[in-house]
Amino acid sequence: MSKLLEVKDLRKYFPTRKGILRRTIGHVKAVDGISFDVERGETLGLVGESGCGKTTASRCLLRLISPTSGSFTFGDEQVDLAKLTPQQMRPFRRRIQMVFQDPQSSLNPRKTVGDIVGEPLRVNRIMKRNERQVQIVELLESVGLKPQDMRRYPHAFSGGQRQRIGIARALALNPELIVADEPVSALDVSVQAQILNLLAELREKFQLSYIFIAHDLSVVKHISDRVAVMYLGKIVEISDARTLYQSPKHPYTEALISAVPLPDPKVQRKRELIHLEGDVPDPSQPPTGCYFHPRCRYATDICRQETPELHEIAPGVKVACHLSETLELQGVS
Amino acid sequence: MAQPLLEVSNLKTVFHTDGGVVNAVNDVSFSVERGKTVGIVGESGCGKSITGLSLLQLVPNPGRIEAGEILFYRDDVNEPLDITQVSPRSELMRQIRGNEIAIIFQEPMTSLNPVYTVGDQIAEAIMLHQEGERSSLARFGLQTTPKWARERAIEMLARVGIPAPEQRVDEYPHQLSGGMRQRVMIAIALCCAPALLIADEPTTALDVTIQAQVLALMQELQAEIGMAIMLITHDLGVIADMADKVVVMYAGRVVEKGSVEDIFYNPLHPYTRGLLNSIPTLGGSQQKMLPSILGTVPHPLALPPGCSFQPRCAEQMPTCEQMPELNTIDASKNRTDRNERHAVRCWLCEEKIDVETA
Ligand SMILES: Nc1ncnc2c1ncn2[C@@H]1O[C@H](COP(=O)(O)OP(=O)(O)OP(=O)(O)O)[C@@H](O)[C@H]1O
Ligand SMILES: Nc1ncnc2c1ncn2[C@@H]1O[C@H](COP(=O)(O)OP(=O)(O)OP(=O)(O)O)[C@@H](O)[C@H]1O
Ligand code: SF4
Ligand code: SF4
Ligand SMILES: [Mg+2]
Ligand SMILES: [Mg+2]
What we know:
The complex is a heterodimer of chains A (333) and B (358). Chain A is α/β, with parallel strands linked by helices. Helix content of chain A is 33%, strand content 24%. Chain A has 12 helices and 12 strands. Chain A has helices at 54-61, 86-93, 103-106, 113-123, 129-142, 159-171, 189-206, 217-223, 241-246, 251-259, 265-270, 301-305, and strands at residues 3-18, 23-39, 43-47, 69-74, 79-80, 96-99, 177-181, 209-213, 226-231, 234-240, 311-314, 317-319. Chain A has an 8-stranded mixed beta sheet, with helices on both faces. The longest helix of chain A has 18 residues, at 189-206. Chain B has 358 residues and is of the alpha/beta class. Helix content of chain B is 31%, strand content 21%. In chain B, the strands form 2 sheets. Chain B has an 8-stranded mixed beta sheet, with helices on both faces. In chain B, α9 (208-225) links the parallel β7 and β8 (228-232). The interface between A and B is large, with 48 and 48 residues. The structure holds adenosine-5'-triphosphate (2 copies), iron/sulfur cluster (2 copies) and magnesium ion (2 copies). Residues 54-55, 181 of chain A line the site of one magnesium ion. One magnesium ion is lined by residues 48-49, 200 of chain B.
């Protein structure tokens, strides 16, 4: 496998302002120095609780917002996208596409499905009109819609079907990487399975890579080859999906896994629940040392003083915890 | 044998809309036992919330209860009360809502008043509840003063696990996190120690770790005050964790109900089986493809004839053009409590059983 994307020390700080002069009084470190790679053909899952910076990180990668610092090298050319001007960025935009949580709000209600899906082709002047029609039909069929759906408007479709439209549009320019931000979170269980299967099928068919963002750990496990867990703007653990769930190495990952109720009453009622006290801290005033220490049941003195770095403890397994070598944590098998 | 607290029979709640009649809740029957938890599951629009709201006569316009019974066995009253016969705006209904059946929703922000502190809102609930008891308290020389109510409010906040309750009591809803707001809602709902708590997706908007805290809190308080819980959710994991009995709804109807073991270990309706198969799980090996249910839920104004699940059902057959009855499974018929029996609405289960004549 070859590397498609390499993210190094990505940061995004939002200023917090106060008063009529809107003076900056501090920063929300929404993304606070994260590093990871995505191989070609691979799905990297990104999980973590609300506000941990998942969406902000993905918006930086697509250059929808400018990162505060960091680099992300993309493609065989190894171009650092973080340094490009919007003009220079343009050819790369086609190669990285996004699928959103709420297909409702990302589809223009006044345009037909054909126009929505064909829009990227038209804007980029990729094909003549009649070729475009053929391509749109193909795209619709590859996401499980019918050619005649072209002439209908988004409101005539269910949530799951709208998500299919969003995916067809993302595929139009033949991208290499798709960043999907909570693509199935708003869908019913039965429809969610359909969309997950579709994404898996398309990955094979078009040799796509995904960054798949979700707060649902089961969904992320299902679709991902590797998983990164975020807490307060940092990646605290990253490894292949099976290892991460079976034998987590970071106390936060352990707690997250333990909090997911398993759909099996006998098993679920016998599990030991790890209680995380309190809420996720305010990201504009993160705790000292390890950001997780106020809620960590293993915390020691060093945890309150020193910030642990993400480091490799076994091939492909990286953890940011002072005690990762000694702790025996529980996963699910 | 658990005593019934609430027996819902053939409940039908409809909306007369411009496009036609939506049978949001259609011939729904189930019971809730004292101190137990009933889980209601099903996909968006299947009628879970409207069922819950019907129990409190809170169905929004233009909806109304058109048929059925909701028998409520109140404390110290011998004859059950049929809630469908009580006027939504009557004093009696208000009393039931305030004191005997409480409800909490998915987004607590919509039910909390943004201009009052959480303390004021809890205190108000306490004062309201004490209204009836005030005279008896006065006999012992006790009074429900605002100061007293505030102290109770602080106690309630501490009870639902909110840190620094003396400070939080003076804060406004927007100053709290989602999990804390849901705790405040629970505190308000529990001021009156209700016999039944209807919880409509109480943790859907919360992160998993906070969800775990809120569910644990509900279980703890249930054990403490013995209330029954009607838990509405689409999350089968939450059901597996909490429910004693489960009701599975599809397009307004009950398609299967039974004990939590019946539903998870012996699901009989193709929809229930499909749902259980299509959820990715944390444990086990990774499968490439999830067995998924084809198609989508039918539009409530364009239901297919017969079994509503028919267009999506892999086992569909000609008989399915007719509506199957909800039938009790033979094997569960010897259960002493008829409210605990396993019942399914599907022609596949028809031949194995004989129709219950209740
Ligand atoms: N434009 C902005 N200005 C200021 N702060 C922001 C902005 N966008 C995001 N934030 C803050 O950055 C942090 C990370 O937000 P982000 O939306 O990336 O989280 P997330 O992990 O996607 O959460 P969710 O699961 O709720 O979608 C939050 O504390 C958020 O309030
Ligand atoms: N005010 C209304 N006017 C017309 N129809 C309504 C109204 N409220 C609800 N309905 C209909 O009643 C049916 C049941 O709705 P209900 O809110 O009970 O679903 P639900 O199972 O709670 O779904 P969700 O999981 O999305 O909350 C739906 O088909 C809905 O369209
Ligand atoms: S570094 Fe310390 S506080 Fe942080 S996760 Fe590890 S043990 Fe817990
Ligand atoms: S009645 Fe027929 S269509 Fe309906 S669930 Fe049973 S087999 Fe399927
Ligand atoms: Mg997000
Ligand atoms: Mg609802």
